[in-house]
Design goal:
By secondary structure, the protein is of the alpha/beta class. It has one domain (71-239): 3-Layer(aba) Sandwich (Rossmann fold). The protein has 8 helices and 10 strands. Strand 6 and strand 7 (110-115) form a beta hairpin. The radius of gyration is 17 Å and the shape is globular.
C-alpha cells in the first residue's frame, strides 16, 4: 500500500456528479460538487497528459494500438476492466434522441445504443492503463465494438456461466485471477456491497468507477481514472 495516506487504495466516484476534481493525490483533498453549482475546490483540477499532435497518417485505432502494447512497460501499468452494458451500450436509448455521440446498432438481434464518446475516452485511458473487457459480452465485445469505437481488439476476461444481470459480484473471482497482485480500476454500472468489500480487501491499489447506465463513461470518470493512474506512476517512481 502507498504510505503516508497520499494515495487511497479504493476510490469510489458517485454517479451523479460534476467532477471539479476527484483528488489531487499530492496530499490535499478536492471537492466533488453536485448540481448545486458550487465549483469551489481546495486544490487544482487534475490534468491529463495527452499527446495532441498524433501522426496524421495513422487511424484512431492505429494510434490506440501504438500506446496499448503488451510489452513489459504495459504490464507495469494498472489494469482497466471495462464493462459494456451501461458503460458503452447505454440504457434508455429511446430517450437519447439524435445525440451525435451515440449510434443505434443491432447486435445479435438486439438493438443497442452505443456511446461513441466512450471510444474517445478509452483511447485516452489507454495511455495510462492496460485495457481489458470485463463484460458478459466476453469475446463478442471484440466482434462488435472495436470498429464502432475506433479501438483495436482487447483481451477479455472469461466468466463462464457466472453472468448475472443487475449485479457485478460474479466478476470478482475472474478479475482476481486475471490480475493477481496488480493495481486494477474497474468501470461498471452494477456494483454491489460485495464489490466494495472486495475492493477494500485487495492488497493492490483498486478503484471502482460507477457510471450512470443512461450516460455511460464520461469525462468526469475519465479524468478521475487518469489522475489515479498518474498518482500510481509517481509513487512507483518515488519508490524506485
Amino acid at each position: 500500500m502507498p504510505g503516508d495516506g497520499v494515495l487511497e487504495r479504493v476510490v469510489l466516484i458517485p454517479v451523479a456528479i460534476r467532477l471539479d476534481c476527484v483528488r489531487n493525490f499530492e496530499g490535499s483533498r478536492c471537492r466533488l460538487d453536485g448540481d448545486h453549482g458550487d465549483t469551489n475546490t481546495t486544490s487544482s483540477r487534475p490534468r491529463l497528459a495527452i499527446n495532441d499532435t498524433p501522426n496524421e497518417h495513422q487511424s484512431k485505432s492505429e494510434r490506440f494500438a501504438a500506446s496499448h502494447t503488451t510489452s513489459r512497460q504495459a504490464m507495469s501499468r494498472p489494469i482497466l476492466a471495462v464493462d459494456v452494458d451501461g458503460v458503452i451500450s447505454l440504457f434508455g436509448h429511446d430517450e437519447q434522441g439524435d445525440r451525435p455521440t451515440v449510434r443505434l446498432e443491432l447486435v445479435d438481434g438486439v438493438m443497442h445504443c452505443i456511446s461513441l464518446a466512450a471510444g474517445d475516452q478509452l483511447r485516452r485511458l489507454s495511455e495510462h492503463f492496460e485495457l481489458v473487457w470485463a463484460t458478459g459480452w466476453e469475446k463478442r465485445a471484440n466482434k462488435h465494438l472495436p470498429e464502432l469505437l475506433g479501438i483495436p481488439k482487447l483481451p477479455h476476461i472469461s466468466f463462464g456461466a457466472a453472468a448475472r444481470f443487475g449485479s457485478a459480484h460474479w466478476k470478482l473471482g475472474p478479475l482476481d485471477a486475471y490480475g493477481p497482485g496488480r493495481a486494477i480500476a474497474w468501470i461498471d454500472d452494477s456494483f454491489d456491497e460485495r464489490c466494495h468489500a472486495w475492493a477494500r480487501e485487495r492488497s493492490a491499489p483498486t478503484m471502482l468507477v460507477p457510471v450512470d447506465p443512461r450516460r455511460g463513461l464520461e469525462e468526469a470518470q475519465t479524468e478521475a481514472l487518469a489522475a489515479w493512474a498518474g498518482a500510481l506512476e509517481r509513487e512507483a517512481r518515488n519508490d524506485s
